[in-house]
Amino acid sequence: MEKMGINFIKRFCLVLLSFVFLSCTRSQKSNNAYTPSIDAMHLDVKDVENSVQTTNSEQKMNRNDLWHGDDGCVCVLFGYGFNDDTFYNEAIEKLDKEYGLEENGGLILPVKFPDDLKSRISNLRSFLDGKNIRGLILLGAPEDTYKTISNINDDWDGMCPYPIYSFFPQDDILGEEAVCNFIIEYERSAEDEVSTEGMTQKIDEQAEDLILSSVRYIMISEYPLPSDSDLHKHVQNIAGKRKIRRYTDQDTGLQSINHFIIED
C-alpha cells in the first residue's frame, strides 16, 4: 500500500511538472507576440473609414505615430501571381519607403513563395515562429496554405492574436474562410469552385494599394476584425475604390460571412 502511495505521488509530480512546463512555454510564446489593447477589439468603422483611404498628403498617416519597433511586424506573403520579380520588387520598394523592412528595423516582413520557404508552404509556420507578428497578409496563397494557418492557430489554442487577410488565393476557399479574417478575390469559374488544381485566378495588377491599405488597417485595428455586421464595411475600406460584395454560393444561395468578391 505504501509503495502504491509513493508511485501515485511520483505520477502526480510528473503531471504537475509537465503542466508547469507547458504553461511556461505558452507564456513565453505569448510574451513574444504583439498584444492588442482591449479598445482595439471593438474597432468602430467610423473611426477608420477616413484614415485608410486618403489622397491628401496632409492627412496621410505618419507611421511613427502608429507604430514603433517593439510593436512587431506585418508579414506579407507573395504567392502565385505576385512572386514575379517585377511585381515583387516594385511592391517591396513601396513598402520599404512607406513602412520600412523588418530586417532594417521597419514594419514589413516579406516572404516570397516558393523561394523563401523551400517550395513548401508548411514552412511558413517555422518562418514566423519566434517573431513578433502583428499581422499576416496573404497574396496568391498556394494550395494547402489554410492547413498551415490552421496549425498556426493551433499554436495559439485556436485564437491567433493577429489578423490574417487573404487576397486572390489559389487555395481551397472553404479552408481559407475557416482560418482567415477575410478573403478578397474575383469571381471563380465553375471548375475552380470544384477544384483549385490548375486554377487561373484573375490577378489584380494594381494590388500594391491593397497591400498598403491592409497594412494601414492592421496598424489601426491591432486585432482580427470580428465577423459581425460591420465586416463588409471594414473590408470595403481596405478595397478602396473597388466595389465588393459578399460571395454567394451558387447551389445553396447562402452568403459567406468573410468571403468577398470584387465586382468587375
The major β-sheet equals: 7 strands, mixed
| Secondary-structure class | alpha/beta
**Can you give the mean pLDDT?**
79
Q: What order do the strands of the largest sheet run in, or round the barrel if closed? A: 2-1-3-4-5-7-6
- Cα-based radius of gyration, to the nearest Å: 21 Å
Helix content: 25-40%
- What is the number of helices? 10
| Proportion in β-strands | 5-15%
Shape estimate: globular
- N-to-C span: 78 Å
Q: Give the SSE order as H and E letters.
A: HHHEHEHEHEHEHHHEE
Number of strands: 7
Key words describing this protein structure:
264 residues; alpha/beta; 7 strands; globular
Outline:
By secondary structure, the chain is an alpha/beta fold. It has helices at residues 2-31, 45-48, 63-66, 85-99, 124-128, 145-155, 173-179, 190-194, 208-221, 231-239; strands spanning 73-78, 108-112, 133-139, 164-167, 182-185, 244-248, 255-262. It has a seven-stranded mixed sheet, with helices on both faces.
Structure description:
This protein is of the alpha/beta class and about 260 residues long. The chain is about 40% helix and about 15% strand. It is built from 10 helices and 7 strands. Strands 2-1-3-4-5-7-6 form a 7-stranded mixed beta sheet, with helices on both faces. β4 (about 165), α7 and β5 (about 180-185) form a beta-alpha-beta unit. α6 (about 145-155) packs parallel to α7 (about 175-180). The termini are far apart.
